[in-house]
Design a protein that fits this description.
By secondary structure, the chain is an alpha+beta fold. It has 8 helices and 7 strands, in the order H-H-H-E-E-E-E-H-E-H-E-H-E-H-H. It has helices at 10-24, 36-47, 55-58, 108-119, 125-140, 154-157, 176-179, 181-192, and strands at 62-63, 73-84, 90-100, 105-106, 122-123, 144-153, 168-175. The chain has a 5-stranded mixed sheet. A hairpin with a 5-residue loop joins strand 2 (73-84) and strand 3 (90-100). Helix 1 packs across helix 2 (36-47) and helix 4 crosses helix 5 (125-140). 25% of the residues are buried. Bound molecules: zinc ion. The site of zinc ion has 6 residues, from loops.
Length: 201
């Protein structure tokens, strides 16, 4: 978590952005850039709102009236917007989150909010994948958790090696998704099933 002690003021943050604008070679006092530092400071609060969110609390409310449902629950194609901690460049992609309920389920929107709670921080994709899976495992204690992330890193597409179209794929499998081949295969088939909305065989 972010250390809040000694946190800079809004004014200090805006001054830092003015310095970066000068570092880029521009004049922060010209008309088009005059309000940029305050806009960027506000944007940072959005990009990094995850530091103010407790992912464990998001999963606190669960439902036990499931009529014994114990098959895979998969939330597919959750939009991912994160920021790479090495270059502070966007990481854009999608996340698939699955779990095998053990007596209780959680509201599906909460799973998407757990993704955001960790995504809206400075991240590397590997750690982000593990944090989402580990939190769901620790709090819900299901029979298994799987998190698969496919994302493009703009630090790779717009700078450095300049390789657009490259997607990085990471996955973390826990419980039955890790130990049971059939369960893992079923999950991957569900993730890859095309056709979007509407269940078709
Ligand atoms: Zn990077």
């Amino acid at each position: 978590m972010l250390a809040t002690a000694g946190q800079p003021t809004r004014e200090q943050a805006e001054e830092a952005i003015r310095i970066l604008l000068r570092w880029a070679g521009d004049d922060p006092e010209r008309e088009g850039l005059r309000d940029t530092p305050s806009r960027v400071a506000r944007a940072y609060k959005e990009f990094f709102v995850g530091y103010d969110t407790d992912p464990v609390a998001l999963l606190a409310r669960t439902f036990e009236e499931t009529d014994g449902y114990d098959e895979i629950v998969l939330l597919r194609d959750i939009r991912l917007e994160s920021t790479c901690e090495h270059h502070m460049a966007p990481i854009i992609g999608r996340v698939h989150v699955a779990y095998l309920p053990h007596r209780r389920v959680v509201g599906i929107s909460k799973l998407a909010r757990v993704v955001d709670a960790y995504a809206k921080r400075l991240q590397i994709q590997e750690k982000l994948t593990a944090q989402i899976a580990n939190t769901i495992q620790d709090v819900l204690e299901p029979r298994g958790v799987a998190v698969v992330i496919e994302a493009a890193h703009q630090c790779m597409t717009t700078r450095g090696v300049h390789k657009p179209g490259v997607t990085m794929v990471t996955s973390r499998m826990l419980g039955a998704f890790r130990d049971d081949q059939a369960t893992r295969r079923e999950l991957l088939a569900m993730i890859n099933r095309k056709g979007g909305a509407g269940y078709t065989e």
